[in-house]
Amino acid sequence: xxxxxxxxxxxxxxNIRVALxxxxxxxxxxxxxxxxxxxLAKLGINHHTKVKDLTDQQINAINQExxxxxxxxxxxxxxxxxxxxxxxxNCWQGICHSMGKKVRGQATRHxxxxxxxxxxTITKRPIAIAGKKxxxxxx
Length: 139
What we know:
Elements lengths: L2 E3 L2 E3 L5 H5 L14 H9 L12 H11 L6 H17 L2 H8 L40
Helix pairs in contact: 4-5
């Protein structure tokens, strides 16, 4: 029996709390209350219950509860729109996003070398001068 919650196939052999974390936007962090734990507590479902042991009524209740949150495609779209807005207004995070650098203040001197673009530096470009002269190199 395949269990689908919000058009996402949920692994059957895992606990429901961990299985719900396979949905983008519902976490499984162990220290704090996560969305999965809040949903299960509200519905009165034990979070150690295996997915294959859930009844159809419980699955439908979980589906209805999850529809209140932005998850999967909607959440990805909002995140992408927020990034594009930062790039458009040319704030520092947007500049870092557009250059492919780390955004949240991490050091990039040593630990950014394995990113696909590597370390990018901003260099001065030659300025074009009117006429037949070639542009002098700056820097």
